[in-house]
Design a protein that fits this description.
Elements lengths: L16 H11 L4 H9 L3 H15 L4 H8 L4 H20 L5 H18 L5 H10 L24 H10 L4 H12 L7 H14 L9 H13 L3 H8 L2 H13 L11 H13 L3 H11 L18 H21 L1
Helix pairs in contact: 1-2, 1-3, 3-5, 4-5, 5-6, 5-7, 6-7, 7-8, 7-9, 9-10, 10-11, 11-13, 14-15, 15-16
Protein name: DUF4034 domain-containing protein
Organism: Streptomyces pseudovenezuelae
Amino acid sequence: MAREGARPTYDPAGHDPALRAALQDLRTGRWMSMRGLLADTTTWWQWTQRTQVLATAAAGTDIVRAWLDEEPHSIPAVVMHARIAVERALRAHREEHGRTRELWREAWQSCAAAARASPQDPVPWVCLLALATLDREQSRPEHRVAPPEPMLPPGPWGLLAEAGKRDPFNREAYHRMLQFLYARGPAERLAEATGFAQWAADTAPPGSALHVLPLYVRVERYRRTGARDAALDLHWVAEDAGRETRQALHSWFEVTRTDERSPLDLNHLAHALWGALQFTDAARVFEALGPYWTPLPWIHRATDPGDRAQALEVFLQARARSSAARKQS
């Protein structure tokens, strides 16, 4: 539990101390802790989360290649190799690097190899969903499959279904699908993302992180349109925003444990509750965050969208306001 008023830290491991230890070893060039961590991972939720965080940290190194050279038949090493290949392709795309298409092709091949090596694993399919965001023209047939509902747009629904067969309502798979929809066009296409997020939340069971998905779309809408703080404040107290926030609170936060929650989801829920003036409930979510925070979505409240220090100040102000209201209630 964080001391009240203490400045939080950004830690991609969040409330997962075993992942934090593996990350520390990874940063010093050692892979045995990563190997042990993945061997001990027993749920697809943790497997997906841990491989994603590890790949983000390892993408600029040759650590997983060294592991794979040492243990070429290791399934976790093969999956991590695919994860890193995808991360590198996505980074190249963001930087408009000349090797993007080559890295994309290599990543696709790595994902296919991981799917063959670990047929029950949702991660290779989640990775293919991530790569789909690079195909803005939907030139590949698997990226323009008919949707499961008529109000939804064509997209990589088959890839999402494959991930869902292995891990129903996989959090990252749905976020990757949302990113694919974001990449399809300008701000007005956010209507598709809104419909998708609402559909996902409405079909998800209690305890699923997909109940938080609509809150991400609300933040993205205002990031793209450049709305000012006052407009954002009015947005969060609207009836539909309140309904989505309550759904996330009651159907996800109140029926899950700390180790089942993504810090990013907690930050989005705390932000939404604070914006909706639901300070007492927001204080509960801030308390669940403990000593951690994430720059998103707070950075979109900063005057300078890239100023993390200012984003942290917004977070601290929101936490203090919520805590004060809780003490008075």
